[in-house]
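Final report, closing paragraph on structural work. Over the funding period we assembled a curated collection of sequence-structure pairs, and we close with a single example.
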Amino acid sequence: MSDAKPLELHHERLFPADSASRDLARALYARVADAAIISPHGHTDPAWFAEDTPFKDALSLLVLPDHYLVRMLYSRGVALNELGVCPPGELPEVTPREGWRCFARHYYLFRGTPSRLWLDSTFAEVFGIDRVLDEQSADHYFDHIQACLAEPGFRPRALLDRFNIDFIATTEHALDSLTHHQTLTSAGLSGRVTTTFRPDDVLDPDVSGFADNIERLGEMTGEAVDGFQPYLQALRRRRADFRALGATATDHGPPSPMTACLSTAVAQTLFDKCRRGAASGLERAQFRGHMLTEMARMSLDDGLVMQIHPGSRRNHNSWLFDKFGPDMGADIPMRVDYCDSLQPLLNAVGNEPGLELIVFTLDESNYTRELAPLAGHYPALRLGPPWWFHDSPEGMLRFRRATTETAGFYNTAGFNDDTRAFFSIPARHDMARRIDARFLAEWVVEGRISESDAQDLIQELTTGLVTEAYRLDKRPSGQFARAAG
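Its predicted structure, as stored:
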C-alpha cells in the first residue's frame, strides 16, 4: 500500500482564515480542548455500558447505526443490502467485511461533510490509523479496527474514561423495561450513564398500538388508566421510575410543537376517543398538544428538564419504510410554527423559573423570527443547540449568528451530540468547541466582546451552560461518578 493517501487532520481545522482571529481561536480552544464531555441527550445503547462486552465489528459499530452515512450512500444509488442492511426478521446478504468494503468504495461521497470530519477524527485519534479510507485500504481498516475492538481498552466502560465522558444520557420509551439501567444502577454507574424519559409511545395517539400501550402503562404502574386522571397518575409514576434510575430529563418528539391547554372535561373526552380510535386528526393533535402541557406541569413538580424535538417528517420515503422499517435516514426537516404553537404551554407555565424547557428545531428560519425572541423573554425557555441536520460547522455558526443578539448566550443549553454513534462523540464535541472558539474570536476581533468575556464564554459554552440547563449541578453527589472496572 505504498501509494496509500495519508490521513492528516489539520490541527487548526475549522478556525478562521484571517491570522488575528485564528490566533485567538486557537488560544480559546486550548482552554477547553481537554475538558470533560457532558452528553445529556443521545441515543447510544445502554446495553453497551451495562453488559460491557466487546463491540462486534467496524460495520455494525461505525456505519449501520449512523443515519448520516446510510442516507448519503442511499442517495447515490448504493443498495442497502450491499451494506448489510436487511428487512426486519431477515439475515444480511453480505458479511460485515463485504459491507465495510462497500462503504469504503464510496467513502469519497462524504468529502466536505461533517461525517467525514467525525470519521477521519475517529479513525486517526481513536484507532491510530494513518491512511485514508478507500477501496485499497478497506481490509486494512477492517482488520485493524477488529483487532482494536478485541482489546480491553476498547470495551464501552473503558472508552467512557478514554473519551473523558463524565456524563452521558440515553433515551428510552415509557414502556421500556429499563433492565440495562437497573444493571447500571446496581453497578454504581447511574450517575454517569443515565436514562431519559421519552413517552411518545403513550402520549401520541398516532403511534401504532396506542390503546394497547396505555393498557401496558397501567400494568407497569399499577394504575387502572380507565380515565384521564388515572392516566396522568400512571405517567407520574412512570416518570418516578425513570428518576429513580438517574434520569434528569424527558424528551418529546411530536411532529409539530403545537401545544394546548384544555379543560379536564375536554381532555377526558379526547382521551376516551383516542383510546377507541375514534378521534379525528385535529382531535388527536389537540390531545397530543395538551399532553405536552401536562408534561411541562409534571416537570415543574418533579424537576425533570423537558426537551421538545419537533419538526421532522419521519420516514418520508414510504417504500423504504415499508421494506426496512424506521431510522433509515429518510426523515426530512419541515417548516413549523413556534410562536403560536407554544403559546398555550408558555402561558400556562412559561413564566415559571423553576421549569427548564429546552426547545430544538430543524427549521432554521425560526431562529431569528420566533425562537430567539421567545427564549429571550420566557424564564422557562432555553434554545437547544443545532440539531440533526444542523450540528455541522456551518449550522453551528448560523445558530450563533441568528440567536445571540436576541437571546444571548445564557438562554441556550450548551452542546449535546444527540447521536447513536458512540465513537463519534469526542469528534462531535471537539467540532462544537472549535466552532465556538471561532465565533468568539471573530467577535473579539470585531470589538463586540472583550477577550476576557470570550475566555469566560468558551468555558460556559463547553460545560457551564449544559451543566446548568440539565441540572447536573443539582445531582445528589454533586459530582459525576466514574466508571468502575
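The chain has two domains: 54-154, 165-474. The CA atoms of residues 211 and 275 lie 5 Å apart. We thank the funder for supporting this effort.
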